[in-house]
Every structure is written in structure tokens, then in C-alpha cells.
Amino acid sequence: MRTYYCHTCDADQPHRPLNAAEAAALKERLGRRSVHEFWICEAVLDAATGRQCRNLRTGGNKKPFDPPIKLPVPE
Ligand SMILES: [Zn+2]
Residues annotated as region Disordered (predicted)? Predict the structure, then answer.
């Protein structure tokens, strides 16, 4: 867990590395072999459902994608 600025929340928020399923989904989406530099925003946007922001950034780049990529919640 690390605190980073989240571009879509427009605030510093807790981020964590991607889990294996998320990394696999992002590799597929980007057509890349490695996505180890990405962090996902864990800010809770809806307290009732616990829905999280899930916006992606890297350690050094707060906005690596334009428009931003938010990983979908797995089924
Ligand atoms: Zn966020």
C-alpha cells in the first residue's frame, strides 16, 4: 500500500500493486508483456457498496493514459 496522487479522484489516495488477475487483464488490454509498474487506486467511491476508484497510474507518472484507465471490477 502506498499513497499516491490519483488523477481521477484529484487527491492523494491509497494505491496497491495489481493482483495477478488484474495484471493479466491489463496485459491483454494493452498488449504488453509486463505491467509491473502500475498501481491501482483503492479510494472508496461508494460507502454503501464499497465500490473503489480502480484508476491506474505508475509510480512515476500520475496520468500514464489519456483518457485514464480504470480497471473494471471482476465478475
Ligand atoms: Zn482514484
Answer: 56-75
